[in-house]
Every structure is written in C-alpha cells, then in structure tokens.
Design a protein that fits this description.
- It is a single chain.
- The protein is globular and about 50 Å long.
- It is mainly alpha-helical and 182 residues long.
- It contains seven helices and no strands.
C-alpha cells in the first residue's frame, strides 16, 4: 500500500463523513431536512466510507460493497427526488441580504437563490451549472494528475456537459419559481 492511497482514503473520509454525514444529521434534527434526504446522504456517506476502508485494506469485498451502497444511493435519490429538490430549494433568502460565505458550503440553494435575486434566474442557473461542472471535472483531473490515473477525462467531460444542459433546465425552473426573476 502506497502512502498516497492512504492519504487519498483519509481525505475522502475527512470530507465525506462531516459534509454528507454529520451535517445532514444536524439539519435533520433541526427539522430542515427530510428523512428521505437524510437517507440519501447517509447511504452516500456509507458508500464512501466503504470505498476508503476498502482502499486502505486492499479489500475487494469492501470496494464491491461500496459500489452496492452507491447504487442504493442512486436508487434512493431517484425514488425521493421530489423531496430532495424541496429540501434543497426550501430556503428563505431576503433579496436585500448581503452575501454570506457560509452559503458556499451549505447543502441547500441559498447561494443560487441569492444570485438569482441579484443577477436573474438565467445567469444564476448558468453559474451554478458551470461551477458544478468545473468542480467535478477539476477534481477528476487532479486525481488523474496526482495519482497517475488513466480515467478518460475528455470523454467524461463531453458526456457530463450534456448532462449539465439538462441540469440547467431544472436549476433555472426552480430558481425562477422561487424568485420570479428571469
């Protein structure tokens, strides 16, 4: 086992468990997240934990269990997609409120709603989609570069760009419903 694999697994756990495990549980306890959304976040956290532990111990059964948990996460997300969207866009942002940096790390759409009030729903949705695209493709590119991976980044970038076109429609519709500003 190389040190960079252990480091990657530790980073995965350090980011995934607090952000997708502890923080959603906190929101659920405060009544700001539904049980369906919490189940999706916990299933994703479990899959990432299995992946990290499987990588550290070089255990194929744990990696396969991680894949099974990831498939379960996808199914849960699909079955409760309406509730997930409601939880994401059920934020109340005052149109005159000043920017708050905490919005950038929250699991809801506070930052996008705030941008929609400032720039309009079209520009806010475009910025949301572009930032998501750059973040996902950038992380994969960094992982390829750092660990000598051979992931087909160009093919993925094209396919993911097509997916993001559909994501734009959904984000725009939700932001326009929330703000009424085009």
């Amino acid at each position: 086992m190389r040190m960079d694999e252990i480091t990657l697994a530790a980073l995965l756990l350090m980011v995934c468990v607090p952000y997708f495990g502890i923080y959603p549980a906190y929101l659920f306890r405060r009544g700001r997240l539904s049980a369906n959304s919490l189940a999706v976040y916990m299933a994703f956290t479990l899959s990432m934990a299995f992946m990290a532990i499987g990588a550290v111990f070089d255990s194929l059964p744990l990696v396969l269990l991680s894949f099974a948990a990831l498939v379960a996460t996808g199914l849960l997300a699909y079955l409760s997609r309406k509730r997930l969207e409601e939880d994401t866009y059920s934020v109340e942002v005052d149109p005159d409120e000043h920017f708050r940096p905490e919005w950038l790390i929250r699991l809801d759409a506070s930052f996008s709603v705030w941008l929609a009030y400032r720039l309009g729903s079209t520009r806010a949705a475009l910025l949301n989609v572009l930032l998501t695209y750059i973040a996902v493709v950038g992380v994969i590119a960094l992982l390829n570069l750092s660990f000598g991976g051979h992931f087909p980044l160009k093919s993925f970038a094209v396919v993911y760009a097509v997916i993001m076109v559909f994501q734009f429609r959904s984000v725009y519709r939700r932001l326009y419903e929330k703000t009424g500003i085009d």
